[in-house]
Amino acid sequence: MEDKDVKKEEHKGRKHVEDSQGDPRIIAFVCNWCTYSGADLAGTSRMKYSDNVRVIKLPCTGRIDPLFIVEAFKKGAKGVLVSGCHPGDCHYTSGNYHSRRKYATFRDLLGYLGVDLDRVEFSWVSASEGNKWVSIINEFTDKIKSLPGKSTDIFTKK
Amino acid sequence: MANTKTDEKLQKIAKDLLESGEVSLVIGYAKGSNLQRMRPVFITKAEDAGKLSFNPHAVQDLAVFLKKPEVKKFGKIGIVVKGCDEKAVNALIQEYQISRDNIKIIGMECNGVIRQSLADKGETNLSESAVYDKCLICEEHIPVLYDFLIESEEPKLVLSGNVKPYSGIEKLESMSAEEKNAFWAKEFDKCIKCYACRQACPLCYCSRCIVEKNMPQWIDTNSEETGNAQWNLIRAYHLSGRCIGCGECERACPVNIPLMLINEKMAKDVYNMFGYKSGLDINAKPVFGVFSESDFNDFIK
User: CB distance A155–B183 less than 8 Å?
Assistant: First the structure.
């Protein structure tokens, strides 16, 4: 086998790995106190949900900078979910209220610049809502999978 | 060219301020290299006050200089502002960038400024089609806050309604995601990452901008499509709820990206969602510094 072929084979192999790990990829930015615990509950209760999602835990939705969403899109994520405590339940009292204001605006801006708004999702999931977490992830994955293949955004390299 | 009555009033105020020591610097406009151009001028001596002038060619937003350390070191500053520029001063006071006590605002009643591109071709009359879009939607012909007010000798702008300001916004809003995507991809493709928009903006005052932070590097610094979109998106996001609509970013842009279509859209959305307009009240809290329990919640599951 020539070097070139080896490279090709390697490339194929890598592609295969990517496929098995779930394509389209969905990134979920979650808060430590509510949604992460909710996802944990889903796990310990042995509930199954789509393996397309990758969960990134942060202290609070207030810490989830809109830049993170842009970065996820840039790195090739098809969908981004931001999830935190229900209004009134924030561990830091008001982080989720602040982020709600930010995201209401940021979502408009994303839509205005041509990002399909079906690709971003926001939710409140409490520590006891393992069920809600599972259904949100599954519905979101279905929605992302049903998007037309060419749905692009201005952040991903063409 | 002879001084107009407006110029005389302006010069007298500046002279008195400097002579009495109430301010040590007056930022204003002086006549430029031709009749259709004005340029910023920094007056530190009372005898130089005669340089000051004002007319519908005074397009610059002088509030941008208030963020500069070399200007701040003068301490007490007098500044000549139009209604739109004055909102930038208010926003800076709101965000604790300058103190109200350190600034004397010389407000100019303004009925619009003439587009520089037209002025360079000799346009001197204020008319609906000659002024910037911001002047057509202006509600602050008289600045909202001032220490001195100089009334305008220019006739009021007559609006027939034939020229639609920021008509691009409605057009874009009605487009599909893909069409919008194509539109902005084309616009941002032109961007050369010169950051003139940031430098010209009175409210972009961070001493270290997000684009200069490289651990981690959030925004690609090379000028190619993806990094350009990121930069323009983040700048627009950082200005949403803050932009006062002076339009300096768009005027400074060397490749003519219609930045005000984004900024105006965000200002409109913030007003619709939170009922907040930037730069109108120095005692108001910035819109993203506060929240309400009953905020817009429809998009969250």
Answer: no
Domain hosting residue A110, numbered range: 25-87+106-146
Nearest to B163 by CA among B112, B202, B128, B126: B128
Q: Is residue A136 part of a domain?
A: yes
Specify if A18 maps to a domain: no
User: Which of A74, A108, A109, A64 minimizes the C-alpha distance to B227?
Assistant: A74
- Whichever domain contains A36, its CATH number is 3.40.50
- Put simply, the answer to whether A114 touches B266 (Cβ < 8 Å) is no
Mean per-residue pLDDT over chain B, rounded = 91
Q: Does A15 fall in a domain?
A: no
Chain B residue nearest residue A69, CA to CA: B230
Measured between alpha carbons, how far is B1 from B42 in angstroms, rounded to an integer? 20
Residue range B167-274, CATH number: 1.10.1060
Pick among B222, B240, B293, B301 to test the A interface (most A CBs inside 10 A): B301
* Chosen from B173, B183, B233 to mutate, greatest number of chain A CBs within 10 A: B233
Provide the domain count of chain A: 1
- Taking the Cβ of residue A94 and every Cβ of chain B, the question of whether any pair is shorter than 8 Å is answered with yes
- Of A112, A67, A96, the residue nearest B238 (C-alpha): A67
Neighbours of A88 (CB within 10 A): 11
pTM equals 0.88
Q: How confident is the model over B74-112, as pLDDT tens digits?
A: 999 999 999 999 999 999 999 999 999 999 999 999 999
Segments making up each domain of chain B, as ranges? 5-150, 167-274
The mean pLDDT of chain A is: 85
Which pLDDT score, from 0 to 100, does residue B199 have?
A: 94
